[in-house]
């Protein structure tokens, strides 16, 4: 199931990732989800996982 993210939500997600960078994984996602009333902890965790994979695979895929 895909979850759509608005630009303001993505900004809050990025702000939360910076603010809670030193938190353990699940706590980071819980705190970020609390900043996003329309998103669940699962939504946040999946988006973070997708963003990490896009960084790893996206840049190498573009060079091929």
List keywords for this structure.
single chain, 73% helix, globular, mainly alpha, 64 residues
List the helices and strands and how they pair.
Elements: H1 7-19, H2 25-35, H3 41-63
Write up what this structure looks like:
- The protein is mainly α and 64 residues long.
- The chain has a domain at 7-46.
- Helix content is 73%, strand content 0%.
- The protein has helices spanning 7-19, 25-35, 41-63.
- Helix 1 (7-19) crosses helix 2 (25-35) and helix 2 (25-35) packs across helix 3 (41-63).
- The longest helix has 23 residues, at 41-63.
Short description:
The protein has a domain at 7-46. Helices cover 73% and strands 0% of the residues.
The helix tally amounts to 3
**Roughly how much helix do the residues carry, as a percent range?**
over 70%
Instruction: Let me know the number of strands.
Output: 0
- Give average pLDDT, whole number: 89
The largest sheet, given as strand count, sense and whether it forms a barrel, is: none
Overall, the morphology is globular
Structural class: mainly alpha
State Rg: 12 Å
- Note the gap between the termini: 29 Å
Low-confidence stretches: none
Series of H and E elements = HHH
> What portion of the residues fall into strands of 2 or more residues?
under 5%
